[in-house]
Structure formats: structure tokens, C-alpha cells
Amino acid sequence: MSSFAATTGPSAAAALEAIYAGPGNAYAVLDAARSRRVLRLVRERRESARILYEGPVAPDIAEVAPYLVPAARGTGVAEEIVGLGWGDAWGIFCVSAAGPDELRRHLRRFLTVRTEKRKTLLFRFYDPRVLRVYLPTCTPTELKTFFGPVERFVCEGEDSRMAVVHRRAGEQFRTEEIPVLEATC
What we know:
The chain is α+β, with helices and mostly antiparallel strands. The protein has one domain (2-179). 33% of the residues lie in helices and 26% in strands. The chain has eight helices and nine strands. It has helices at residues 2-8, 13-20, 36-44, 59-62, 77-85, 100-108, 128-134, 140-147, and strands at residues 25-31, 50-51, 66-70, 91-96, 112-114, 120-122, 150-156, 162-169, 172-179. The strands form two sheets. A seven-stranded antiparallel sheet has the order 2-3-1-4-7-8-9, sandwiched between helices. It has a two-stranded antiparallel ribbon with strand order 5-6.
């Protein structure tokens, strides 16, 4: 999209390369509560975007829900997110050999968690500020469960000029930071 180039400049190509490196289908898991632009992006792709919640969802909840959106190279989805929302915690990217229905089923398992006092809470793993703090605390077994069919997760770093890539490496899991955006004045 033209807004991508105008907004981020040529160095954002590194963010896209982190998303598209290697085999697999790229997806964005977006939080419609973060911006009206996210909801607009989801609505523009209503044929392929899937809400992560199950069953009938009230319209006011749908406006702030998490969505799974295919982000294949050439569709403009990743470019738009990186160009307009990188640094604003719009969501995360994941890459998987799984199709969208299988990936949605897998990700839905993590929408809620139980506290030690058995209270159920929403778990906003699709918020990059949550994902990049959560994954390093996981045991190898927890990582295997959380990753499931996902080969890698990509999200903005605490410093939005960086991308954080959490990836499967055989039976191991690796995290690396990649510079993706130039500093702006």
C-alpha cells in the first residue's frame, strides 16, 4: 500500500522479512480494541478474517475482539499493519503450516486462563506487550503447547524499532530481536 511506504520508509522491509522468512502461512492476530483502523482492516477482509471468540458475539464485543487475519505476501495485510500500526500494539504475527480454521482452534485455547484461586481471566496473548513478556517465562513443555502448529511468532519489540521473533528450532525455542525501523526525529 502507498501508506506503508510513506509511513515507514524502506527499513520496514526488515519487519516484513521477519514475518515472511521461511515456509508457512503468515497470519496476523489483531486486537480490534487497540484502534478503529484495526476494526476497519478486519471489516475490509470480512471473508477471510475470523473472530477468535466462539458462537454468537454481540456487536459491541465484536468491535473490540481479537481476530485472525491471513497475511500472505502480496495481500497488503502485513504491509498495512507494519506501516500504520507498528509500535501501537495492534497485534502479533504468526507463521504456521496450519490452515486458518486449525490455527484459530489452537489459538482459542489460550484466550482465558485460570488463577490459582480458580478465577477465569482473559489472556491477551495477541498483545505484543504481553507475548514478549510471557513466552520467556514458559517451560519447554508450556512452549510446545503454546506454539502448537505455529513455527514462529513475530511482534514489535519494547523499542518499536525492533521486532521480536519467537521461533521453533527443532525441539528448542529461540527468541531474537531484529532491528526493523530507523529512528525518527
